[in-house]
Amino acid sequence: MVQISERDIVTIGGVLNDSARPLKERFRALFTLKNIGGATAIEQIHACFKDPSALLKHELAYCLGQMRDPAAISILTDVLEDLSQEPMVRHEAGEALGAIGESSVIPLLEKYRKDLTPEVAETCELALSRLRWLESNGDAKQDLQKNLYSTVDPAPPMEVTDVSVLRDTLLDEGKSLFDRYRAMFSLRNLGTTESILALAEGLKAGSALFRHEVAFVLGQLQNEASVPGLQASLEDTQENEMVRHECAEALGSIATPECYEILNRYLDDSKRVVRESCVIALDMCDYENSAEFQYADTLTKLPTA
Questions:
Q1: Banded pLDDT at 3 (limits 50, 70, 90)
Q2: Under 8 Å CB-to-CB from 24, ≥6 apart: which residues?
Q3: In this structure, are residues 296 and 63 in contact, taking their beta carbons and an 8 Å threshold?
Q4: Can you tell me the distance from the alpha carbon of 4 to that of 257, in angstroms, rounded to the nearest whole number?
């Protein structure tokens, strides 16, 4: 096992915070810091919130949430409360606060569940629902990361396994967003062609926040059956850029030759977050088709000088 010193962590943080570096290198540095964890890694991630890239800042917040370290709460609070930050960045900060799972953030989330930006308001409502569920289901708390993806999800899966029932819940806009997310993660965990096609229907249902999460989940599944739906959403220039960006990254995870072709067509998209997502997605394609053991492999794959 490689021993990582504080100096190594700061060096990796230097890659993350160097705007002259290719974005794909900075992303790999970020995920390396996430995997290392600890105070120094969090400090290096915190320093990057001054970057102009909304995509990168969104990913910073995501990683802080996945680290589940309460030391990141004050950082994420500042990001959520900063109205000059892009909606997709603030939304991810709200989600990350819910992922960390500390009840101390409930008053903050209560405040921003009424935010004027729908994606932020809905995210804070979801995060509140997750925290309340945790309070009522303390015994299940340790099981929430026991999925194939080792991710901290914004909602726990349902116990239902009937795809038709889960599909109906997923697409029912009369249901709470929390219940629809629970159905979403249940369908993901089933991982069958039937459940994947049901999820893909969600790309055309509900709010932008909901559709973007469907795309994220389809990326986790890495199944070619979802490519037509993801392609259609990416190609729809009227679609919310947060959704299009997540579709691009999902295509990068699936990494078929068709995905390469689709992504290359949008490297010059009019939306910066979409262009940058295609760059990252193509790097993910390269990784998925290589012999690399781990995407976040900065210590051995990136120059540090």
A1: confident
A2: 279, 280, 283
A3: no
A4: 36
Residue 262 contacts by C-beta under 8 Å, 6 or more apart in sequence?
227, 231, 234, 251
Find out whether 227 and 251 touch, Cβ atoms under 8 Å: yes
Structure tokens at 230: 């993801």
Sequence-distant (≥ 6) Cβ neighbours of residue 132 within 8 angstroms: none
Residues 6 or more apart whose CB falls under 8 angstroms from that of 271 comprise 241, 244
Q: Which of 63-77, 104-118, 146-160, 180-194 has the lowest mean pLDDT?
A: 146-160
Mean pLDDT of 236-240: 97
Provide the terminal-to-terminal Cα distance of the chain, rounded to the nearest Å: 23
pLDDT, residue 298, reads 47
The whole-angstrom separation of Cα 280 and Cα 271 is 15
The Cα 44–Cα 9 span in angstroms is 8
